[in-house]
Inverse folding.
């Protein structure tokens, strides 16, 4: 009797696997040859006055890290930013909220702005392409935030 039940279970599994009811190939996303441009607009950069201050992600702002601030994009999103005037490109991680000025779409770190050749003009026309999400160890992030709280807050 047990062998019959085992055969029955395997037969049902085999029939289910061979059925056309679920066409898994249609669920695979099509690969596009065009870039996935998320947003176009004007970016600016922020530097020395903010260096070391805590960002929205909890980490200290480092003007020499390839990071950016965006108003709505999820934190830790990896983006490709292209200067549309000279075609220079950088890969950045969104770790902060901004810009404050609603006519801008992105605040760049100083090093990112340098690589895009934006600092001399103060702002530049850009395109943003979303590449994915950074693989940040949640424990490391938690310890970094805890470490940055300051000794007086930790001792409470």
């Amino acid at each position: 009797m047990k062998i019959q039940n085992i055969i029955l279970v395997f037969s049902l599994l085999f029939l289910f696997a061979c059925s056309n009811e679920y066409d898994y190939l249609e669920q695979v996303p099509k690969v596009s040859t065009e870039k996935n441009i998320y947003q176009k607009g004007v970016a600016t950069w922020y530097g020395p006055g903010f260096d070391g201050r805590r960002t929205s992600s909890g980490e200290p702002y480092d003007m020499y890290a390839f990071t950016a601030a965006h108003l709505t994009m999820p934190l830790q999103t990896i983006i490709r930013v292209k200067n549309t005037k000279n075609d220079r490109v950088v890969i950045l991680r969104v770790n902060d909220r901004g810009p404050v000025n609603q006519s801008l779409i992105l605040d760049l770190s100083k090093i990112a702005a340098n690589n895009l050749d934006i600092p001399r003009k103060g702002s530049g026309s850009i395109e943003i392409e979303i590449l994915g999400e950074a693989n940040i160890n949640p424990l490391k992030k938690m310890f970094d935030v805890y470490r940055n709280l300051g000794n007086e807050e930790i001792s409470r």
